[in-house]
Specification:
The complex is a heterodimer of chains A (554) and B (194). Chain A has 554 residues and is mainly α. Chain A is built from 22 helices and two strands. In chain A, 80% of the residues lie in helices and 1% in strands. In chain A, helix 17 runs antiparallel to helix 18 and helix 19 crosses helix 22. Chain B is mainly α and 194 residues long. Chain B has one domain. In chain B, 52% of the residues lie in helices and 8% in strands. Classes of the chains: A mainly alpha (554), B mainly alpha (194). Chains A and B meet through strand 1, strand 2, helix 1, helix 3 and helix 5 of A and helix 1, helix 2, strand 2, helix 5 and helix 8 of B.
Chain lengths: 554, 194
């Protein structure tokens, strides 16, 4: 029910219209403006509308100019009005910002500052800030105006990244200096962009419209003999019709001229004349005119325009995507570099404070035997992930291990064999003693050792010794293939000799000696002898714990 | 230092930007002019027993009906529905909005204000069993102001439009005076500040 309202104050807002305008691209607008100006000239109604718009544009412009003049007069700066007008006209061509925006901004600033020079500087700053931040010139100039009045809150919202302390100080000289430092040259740089060029084109179009509007008003004054609206309206309609006719004829004339100009013979003649006259700049103008002609021709083909616009959009989208990808790649690369840098530093630090490594190095320095050193070097290789060193250490350790195993096995076998032989000798000695006792005392032995049993025992011992010798020799040969430095181990000859000596001496001694065996009846067969030997071995093991020589590594 | 401000909107914006006190002062001045309009409009409201008895009573099914029943007249609701607001209302489709306005927002108030504006002889085919209910309802209400020739049919009414048509001449002058006065003060302040 809020539509039932009464009020003395009503306002009109073009917010919706502006939004709609923004939705249309700058290119589209410009093209349409040009279209209205050039392509649509054949319709009288279009002429009429354009005329009305042109008149309105001129009136608005004049109104704004007068408003500025009044403001300057009130400030006592009326003498500078022509200069200011020239300044604004030049500024709009330099920055691509319409005088419709520049005038109110300048007026606001000059009202707040009361100083022409300062206002001009502030307007330049506002243009730069506006171009850089994307905020409207009106917003920026209003914020600056407030700043000059002591309210710097608006400046903080411009997104210019101004220091809070600086804003709080309220010193506009410093604030302006900071803004100039940050955004100087932005307005000019914007002109080099596509959007900037379009803005500049809009400025020229608007200027042209205003100029046409002024001309139309002058014409209306001449045509309308009195001030009645009917006469003015009729005059405008007639004027529109006349302009329409003139434009049609003009278009025909341009077309004819274009046909003539496109004639190769004509072009050759003109080129010759121009070259002869040395008027190169004029030639350039002719070519520029030809370019313009091609633009105007393109205006008449909406399909081509659409295609061109579509291609332009796609290109822009591709460029944007490429820029985004590049940006992302750069960011990731930076992050990767940072991480690598940090990792290297951390590794260095880790090495310095690696307790395990320190312990191993200390142990390596303190170690005296080569084997321990090899083990420590291997551990260091593992720690450092040093493959080459690990391989070398591995081979050396394996060799040392093989050597130890050989030593252990050899010594073990030797001692075992020696112990066994000793037991057998004891056993045989006891048997012999029993037998001798039987002979001396007449006590009959339970089972005297027959020659067959004795031979079997000797053969068994000889065979076992031969086996041990063979095995030892094979170990020694294996070791020789793996260990480069033979001096680290006993020579084959010495081993061989020792083993050979044992093997040769012990059985022979048993065989050659006169064995007198006294059997007390415990050994009745060969199996009993085997069992006796076995028991002896077990007993030795029980008594000594093992058969491995002391000092050898298991 | 005078500032050439074109239009109330620009003046309001400029004042908000530079001097909020002046903005409030202007609103106060306009409010003083507009409140009599509101009060006068409220004075045009009929008392509860002055409207058709059926309209003054809510229908029995109002609580259970699954449709919006015809709004019953309630003096208090209609009275409080006539308000003064200093802000601006929603823009219409043409882009216009008003500030410092008096509005008639309640349903019974709006019915009283506008009944018969579009069809002075009522309509037929309504929900009522009485075929003449529409015209009888309109005829029971006071005469509507007739501003059709000057401001259009949409400016006719019995409450705020009536009050406005009677006093708008004075109000316009006072509001414009208030705006001008504030603008002058604003300019004077700016001049002093410079």
């Amino acid at each position: 029910m809020a539509s039932l309202v009464v009020s003395a104050l009503s306002t009109w807002s073009n917010k919706g219209l502006k939004k709609a305008e923004k939705d249309v691209s700058a290119f589209d607008k410009t093209v349409k403006n040009l279209g209205k100006t050039f392509a649509g000239v054949f319709a009288a109604s279009t002429i009429l509308n354009f005329s009305k718009n042109a008149v309105k544009a001129f009136m608005d412009d004049e109104k704004a100019a007068k408003s500025l003049n009044v403001a300057l007069n009130n400030l006592g700066l009326g003498f500078a009005a022509p200069g200011i007008e020239l300044y604004i006209n030049n500024l709009q061509r330099m920055t691509g910002v319409l005088d419709d925006e520049l005038r109110p901004a300048f007026q606001t600033l000059v009202t707040a500052t009361g100083d022409l020079t300062l206002s001009q500087e502030a307007l330049d700053t506002a243009l730069n800030v506006s171009a850089a931040t994307g905020r409207s010139l009106q917003t920026v100039s209003l914020a600056l105006t407030r700043g000059f009045s002591g309210q710097t809150t608006g400046l903080s919202r411009l997104g210019a990244g101004l220091d809070k302390t600086l804003l709080a100080s309220g010193d506009m000289n410093k604030i302006m200096a900071e803004l100039n430092k940050k955004f100087s040259g932005q307005a000019k740089a914007r002109l080099s962009t596509y959007a900037g060029q379009m803005s500049l084109l809009q400025v020229y179009a608007a200027d042209a419209q205003e100029t046409i509007g002024k001309g139309l008003l002058d014409a209306i004054k001449i045509l309308g003999e009195d001030n009645s609206i009917q006469n003015v309206g009729d005059s405008m309609q007639n004027l529109a019709d006349n302009i329409s006719n003139v434009t049609t004829n003009l278009a025909k004339m341009i077309k004819t001229m274009g046909d003539i100009a496109s004639n190769p013979a004509f072009q050759a003649v003109v080129a010759l004349l121009l070259l002869r006259a040395g008027r190169v700049d004029l030639l350039a103008k002719v070519f520029a005119g030809a370019a313009l002609g091609s633009v105007l021709t393109a205006e008449g083909k909406p399909a081509d325009r659409e295609d061109a616009r579509e291609i332009e959009r796609k290109l822009m989208a591709d460029r944007n995507r490429e820029a985004k990808l590049l940006k992302t790649t750069n960011t990731l690369r930076t992050v990767e570099n940072d991480l690598l840098k940090k990792k290297t530093e951390v590794d260095k630090l880790k090495e310095k404070f690696d307790v395990e490594r320190i312990g191993l190095m200390a142990a390596l320095n303190a170690a005296t035997d080569e084997e321990t050193k090899q083990r420590l070097r291997a551990q260091l290789a593992i720690l450092d992930n040093n493959a080459a060193l690990a391989k070398k250490s591995n081979a050396e350790l394996e060799a040392a291990n093989s050597l130890n195993m050989l030593n252990a096995a050899t010594r073990g076998l030797t001692l075992q064999m020696g112990a066994s032989i000793s037991d057998i000798q004891k056993f045989l000695g006891a048997q012999s003693s029993n037998y001798n006792q039987y002979i001396a005392t007449g006590t009959s032995p339970s089972a005297p050792m027959d020659p067959t049993t004795s031979k079997v025992v000797n053969d068994y011992l000889a065979a076992e010794t031969a086996k041990v010798t063979e095995q030892t020799l094979s170990y020694l040969e294996k070791l020789r293939t793996k260990v480069k430095d033979p001096s680290q181990i006993q020579t084959v000859e010495s081993f061989y000799g020792q083993i050979k000596g044992i093997a040769a001496s012990q059985p022979q001694q048993s065989v050659n000696n006169k064995v007198e065996v006294t059997v007390n009846g415990s050994i009745l067969a060969l199996q009993d002898l085997d069992k006796a030997i076995e028991d002896a071995m077990l007993r030795i093991q029980r008594q000594n714990g093992n058969l491995t020589p002391a000092g050898s590594i298991q | 230092m005078p500032v050439n401000v074109t239009g109330v909107k620009q003046l309001q914006k400029a004042m908000r930007a530079v001097d909020d006190d002046l903005f409030k002062e202007m609103n106060t001045s306009i409010k003083a002019v507009m409140l009599p309009i509101r009060d006068k409009a409220r004075g045009f409201l009929p008392r509860q027993d002055e409207v058709l008895s059926g309209w003054g009573r809510p229908t029995a099914s109002v609580a259970t009906a699954n449709y919006r029943a015809f709004p019953a007249y309630d003096y208090q609701t209609a009275k409080t529905g006539i308000k003064y607001k200093a802000g601006s209302n929603k823009r219409n489709r043409n882009g216009f909005s008003v500030t410092n306005y008096v509005s008639n927002e309640s349903a019974p108030g709006a019915i009283f204000e506008t009944a018969g504006r579009k069809n002075p002889r009522g309509t037929t085919g309504g929900a009522s069993l009485n075929p003449n209910a529409s015209i009888q309802f309109i005829e029971s209400l006071p005469e509507m102001t007739n501003n059709y020739k000057t401001t259009g049919r949409k400016r006719d009414g019995r409450l705020i439009y009536k009050a406005w048509s009677e006093d708008s001449g004075k109000v316009y002058k006072k509001v414009v005076d208030a705006v001008e006065k504030t603008a002058n003060k604003f300019n004077a302040k700016q001049a002093k500040a410079a």
